[in-house]
Structures are given as C-alpha cells and as structure tokens.
Automatic annotation (TrEMBL):
<protein>
    <submittedName>
        <fullName>Glutathione S-transferase family protein</fullName>
    </submittedName>
</protein>
<feature type="domain" description="GST C-terminal">
    <location>
        <begin position="89"/>
        <end position="236"/>
    </location>
</feature>
<dbReference type="Pfam" id="PF13410">
    <property type="entry name" value="GST_C_2"/>
</dbReference>
<dbReference type="InterPro" id="IPR036249">
    <property type="entry name" value="Thioredoxin-like_sf"/>
</dbReference>
<dbReference type="InterPro" id="IPR036282">
    <property type="entry name" value="Glutathione-S-Trfase_C_sf"/>
</dbReference>
<dbReference type="Pfam" id="PF13417">
    <property type="entry name" value="GST_N_3"/>
</dbReference>
<dbReference type="InterPro" id="IPR010987">
    <property type="entry name" value="Glutathione-S-Trfase_C-like"/>
</dbReference>
<feature type="domain" description="GST N-terminal">
    <location>
        <begin position="2"/>
        <end position="81"/>
    </location>
</feature>
<dbReference type="InterPro" id="IPR004045">
    <property type="entry name" value="Glutathione_S-Trfase_N"/>
</dbReference>
Length: 324
C-alpha cells in the first residue's frame, strides 16, 4: 500500500478536513495542488470527470468523497474512529449535524479577508466564476441549503451546542478526536480563515480548534499533477468487488447492490461522472494512448441514502481511440 496522493487546493474546507486527519494520524502523503475549479486536465483523466475536491490517489486507485478518503486514512493509520461507518449512532448523528450546517458556515465565512486570500491564486474574474460554480454545485448537494440571511444565526446556534459539548472534554466525544471532530472543524476553519470575530464568543470552540490545528498536516511531500498521472499509468489497481470484467471500450460500474457494464456512447466527449441509480454512470473520452491509463478504479459514495461504495474501472486502450 503506497502513500496517499491528495489532489487539493489551500482554501478548500473539505481538503482541510482530510489534511487535519492526516495530521492527527501523522501519515506521510503527497500533495498535488490543483485548480479551484475545472479545467483540471490530469485530474479529469484520473477521476473520470468527478468535479469535487479533494480527490485521493494510491497509484491507479482513486478515492472520491471525504467519507471514502477518511475510511482509507482510518485503515492505513489504525484509527477506526475516523471511519464514520465504524462509529456508533451518536457519532454518526454528530457528523450528520455538522454536514447539515456546513453550507451555512461557507456562507458565513465570506469576507474581505477571505477574498484577499483567494485572490492570491485567482483572478477576480475566476473568483466570480468560482462563486457561481459553487452555488450551482450546492443546488445538487445532498445536504440542505440555507439562505444567506439565515446562515449566521444557524451557525451561531450550532456553535452554542458545540460550546456546551466541549465543556465536558477536550474533544466532542472524549479525550481524543474522532470523525465527528473533523466533520465539525472544516466549516469553522473556513470561517476562521475569513477572519470572522464572532467565533471569539465561543472560547471552548476556539480552544478545540487550536487543538486540532496543532496536529498539523502530517508528513507532506510535493508532487506534480503529471507525476501523479504517471504513477497511475504505471500502477495496477487493487481488486474490484463483484467485478464483471470490462471489455475494451466499455466502462464497468459495480455497486454493492447492482453490478452493470456500460458501453461508451458513440459520441462520448469530455469525461463525465454523474449519479445514477445507486452507482456512477461513466463516459470515457476517446483519447490518444499518451493519456490512457491501463485501468483506474474510482471509489465514491452517496451520503443521501444508505452508504454505497461505487467502483468504476476503464478497460485498456489498445489504439488511438477507445474501441467501440
């Protein structure tokens, strides 16, 4: 099992959730910084068009969704408390509560300070595009949206809950953190990055955030996107569960409840991954061998229903175009 590669960008709150987990477990990992929004050419090839950040990689195995990435960190570090599916109902409820208020945290984080930080890597036009892109993504999110006017009160109500909980122990469920702490942390981290002063009204929350921040981000080495792609090309992915075996020119998607194989549409263009009936439908771009990976597994999750692990593999490319 090779060290994880994380495709991320600095101001991504979901990336910070994963980075904090890596810091807590002190794992060694490789950092590939990517754009805040597409186009991301190398990552699009790896993740089949999956648009959200972060994405984790182990050779030719690609992990989408922070729950799946957290599970992978839990396995590698021997910290099962970072896998929400291995936690009890109370922890799972706390994670669900944090996810419920996440977008309210994002809306409450907006400030001149945060804008200045974003403009270090983005033009003003790109920043406007990013805001519009995130609003559109939010419309299809599994967690409920909240109006900008209601967001601050929603966040403050949740902060009051956390302040009471943290009066009993250093972390939400005792002397050490678990997945609920990291699920709660990253939205508030973005508010703090925005320089919002109302957080100071909650000293126990601030001290708890300081404890998580003190974990750092683990043992990090920088890697280029091209090098990450080369590692995927050279690697053999792990075994696929209930794999029916893709044929050249087909995409095989296997969910826990239903395996299926899809032919690549005759007019397939850019990579696209979109939710289907409990599994990902994949379209693979016709492309030159230089961009073809022998086989890539993409693992994602759907948190709006019962957890389902979805695997997608792409058959070898044996010519300048994918066989049809």
């Amino acid at each position: 099992m090779a060290d994880l590669i994380l495709h991320h960008y600095p101001l991504s709150p979901y990336s910070e959730k994963v980075r904090a987990m890596l810091g807590y477990t002190n794992l060694h990992w490789y950092s590939v910084q990517t754009r805040e929004m597409p186009p991301r050419p190398e990552l699009a090839i790896l993740a089949g068009g999956y648009r959200r950040i972060p994405v984790a990689q182990d050779g030719a195995d690609i992990f989408c969704d922070t729950r799946i990435i957290g599970r992978e960190i839990a396995v590698r570090s021997g910290h099962p408390e970072l896998d929400v599916d291995q936690c009890d109902a109370a922890v799972q409820q706390a994670v669900a509560r944090a996810e419920e208020v996440f977008f309210a945290c994002v809306l409450s984080a907006g400030s001149l300070t945060l804008t200045r930080k974003a403009l270090r890597t983005l033009s003003l036009l790109d920043l406007m595009r990013l805001v519009r892109d995130r609003m559109n993504m939010g419309k299809t999110a599994s967690v409920r949206m909240v109006s900008p006017k209601k967001a601050p009160d929603m966040v403050k109500g949740w902060l009051a809950e956390l302040e009471r909980e943290l009066g009993r122990a250093p972390f939400l469920f005792g002397a050490t953190p678990n997945v609920a702490d990291f699920a709660a942390y990253h939205g508030l981290w973005l508010i703090r990055e925005g320089g919002k002063s109302f957080l100071r009204q909650y000293p126990k929350v601030m001290a708890w955030m300081d404890r998580i921040r003190a974990f750092g981000h683990g043992q990090v080495e920088t890697l280029s996107a091209e090098a990450a792609l080369d590692r995927a090309k050279a690697a053999t992915p792990g075994p696929l569960k209930r794999q029916t075996g893709p044929t050249p020119g087909s995409v095989s998607a296997c969910a826990l409840h239903r395996p299926t194989t899809h032919r690549i549409p005759a007019k397939a263009s850019s990579p696209a991954v979109r939710p289907g009936a409990g599994f990902w439908h994949g379209n693979t771009r016709a492309s030159a061998p230089s961009t073809c990976i022998s086989r890539v597994r993409v693992t994602g999750s759907r948190s709006s229903e019962a957890q389902r692990t979805t695997l997608l593999s792409v058959a070898p490319c044996d010519s300048h175009r994918w066989a049809r």
